[in-house]
Amino acid sequence: MCGIVGVLGNHEAAPLLVEALKRLEYRGYDSAGIATVNDGALDRRRAVGKLVNLSDLLVHEPLAGKAGIGHTRWATHGAPNVANAHPHRAGPVAVVHNGIIENFRELRAELARAGLHFETETDTETIALLVQHMLNQGMTPRDAASAAIGRLEGAFALALLFDGEDDLMIAARKGSPLAIGHGKGEVFVGSDAMALAPMTDQITYLEEGDWAYLTREHVEIRDASGTLVNRPVQTVNIDLAQVEKGGHRHFMAKEIAEQPTVLGDALAHYLRGEGIELPGPGLDFNDFDRLVMVACGTANYACVVAKYWFEQLAGISVEVDIASEFRYREPPIPPRSLALFVSQSGETADTLAALRYCEGKAQRIAAVVNVTESSIARESDLVLPIRAGTEIGVASTKAFTCQLTVLFLLALKAAHDRGRLDGEELDAHLTALRRIPGLLNTALAQSDQIATVAKPVSEARDVLFLGRGAMFPLAMEGALKLKEISYIHAEGYASGELKHGPIALVDKTVPVIVMAPSDHLFDKTVSNMQEVMARGGKVLLITDARGAKAAGEDCWKVLVMPEVAALLAPILYALPAQLLAYHAAVAKGTDVDQPRNLAKSVTVE
Ligand code: HGA
User: Fold this and answer.
1) 376, CA 20 to 30 Å: which among 296, 344, 541, 571?
2) pTM to 2 decimal places
3) Cβ pair 1, 570 in contact under 8 A
4) What is the mean pLDDT of the chain?
5) How far apart are CA 242 and CA 245, in angstroms?
6) What percent of the chain is predicted at pLDDT more than 70?
7) Cβ neighbours for 131, distance < 8 A, ≥ 6 positions apart
8) What is the DSSP string of 172-194?
9) What pLDDT score does 60 carry?
10) Which of 38, 39, 21 lies closest to 30 in space, CA to CA?
11) Whose CA is nearest to atom 8 of ligand 1?
12) List of residues 6+ apart from 220 with CB closer than 8 A
């Protein structure tokens, strides 16, 4: 959340900053702003709402200068208005910040006593005032920044510019990611490498507690103790086509459509010869009695689906928790545990904190991530990339199905390691898995039909999603997708749980979406559907041809998916759930890729 960027370049900084912010807008879009130093003079422009408002402002009030910083905000402290928009300025200092300064109240009180004045409600302004306070005491910008950074508690990635200094920027990271980009006689900073991709592919990732003193010709990085450190320069290949919509109306539509391809790619990565090959140091599931899985949002639902797989296939006991609860719950972690963290960005603050809680307690720490240079990946013993490619749409789609695919492979490996699957059985599962990209293509072809069904769903105030077994977490994911992008209130329930309360909500205005392939639990789900229909509820059944024949007649609508191996149904059925949410949002005219109040990568608590 919140994206920051900085440029010490040889060209006008404003267009470069705006272009980089465009690539960071997935992190937040409450407001945006830039500051530059031009002939020694520090100035800034800020606008509320999407980046396009800042671009418009810059047309009327351009900002010259070859040194600049920029920010796209997801507000944590203070309303999304111009005053609270970054960059924040205090006298000769401007700052952009991603994170939360937890001791800002104490610092504010101290600075107020010293006679400094606050103009905003943000925690971030404290950083600028603290640096100004240090400068007032006669310190150089370098010493002032270093002293101020040392006083900050909480999480931050930040970049500072100074009035009178055309060739100086200071950057720092603690808890929020920050990359430095190297050009020819130019230097850049950004929340991620993708932001800097049009300018450079030569990237240094700052580590926890690092801060950097930057000029065009010189990059000096120090760790938290002030010691000069050498951080490697990596060549980061980013396919720029991935950050374009490629003919689709929305990134979300593009990313839904990409699933057969990226899933196939993920499979090719892990399936070598006859078996499953994991990267890195060998993992033997006989070493573990317990699997602890922790994640947030959609990734959490991927873990809950996987719990069914690990338990049924491998007979290993699994605990799944959402990271924001897990991290403060102080759960005991038995020594023979594998702790597994799932995060698209690999920067999810709560998940990272949960991982750190498990360090020294769990026997091994593994990460299932999309961004392999991320903090969660770097702090894990074993990294399992999901290979979904860049996901821009705030509502996760292809990352979810790729997470499921990698987790299924891991469950198969666990079952094989523990002697619960012989070679032949493993083969049969892998053959079924290899069919999934083709089945997803068949499901994708129903997009228009799903759009027709989505229209009346988009007019509902409340929607219920039902599923049994591993389709229960998928029901919760379907409800989450609908909430996220169409703002319709939706809940996912275990089909059997409906009669214990939620059935009271059912009437003819509440669509009940039942996701039920014709597996061994199908008849039970049909009974639950009957209970809904007996009370005037209208059921949209998503099933296969056999299911439709057996139970479809009394339903309000039926969507028919191709037949799929029972265990793999959550991967296939994710697609109609995504398309339903997508088309409902389009019908309502909401901002599909950047839904209100949300941001993609949640790097704050
Ligand atoms: N706390 C700052 C920055 C917010 C942020 O990084 N969000 O992800 C603010 O509220 O402006």
Assistant:
1) 571
2) 0.82
3) no
4) 94
5) 8
6) 99
7) 90, 93, 95, 141, 144, 145, 148, 160
8) EEEBS--EEEE-SS-EEEESSHH
9) 95
10) 21
11) 1
12) 212, 213, 214, 228
Question: Atom of ligand 1 at shortest distance to CA of 603?
Answer: 8
Beta strands in 301-407 (DSSP E): 317-322, 337-343, 364-369, 382-385
What are the contacts of 231-236 at 24+ separation with CB within 8 A? 231/204, 231/205, 231/206, 231/207, 232/204, 233/182, 233/202, 233/203, 233/204, 234/202, 234/203, 234/204, 234/205, 234/373, 235/201, 235/202, 235/203, 236/193, 236/197, 236/201, 236/202, 236/203, 236/373
pLDDT 10s digits, 553-570: 889 999 999 999 999 999
- Residue 198: cis peptide before it, omega within 30 degrees of 0: no
Q: Which residues line ligand 1 (CB under 6 A)?
A: 1-2, 28, 73-78, 97-100, 122-124, 603-604
Gyration radius of the chain over CA positions: 25
Active site residue 2: yes
In contact, 173 and 156? CB cutoff 8 Å:
yes
- DSSP-based three-state secondary structure for 156: strand
Give the model's pLDDT for residue 240.
66
Tokens of 428: 């049969």
Q: Active-site residue among 22, 66, 307, 600? A: 600
Of 282, 283, 290, 406, the residue nearest 344 (C-alpha): 406
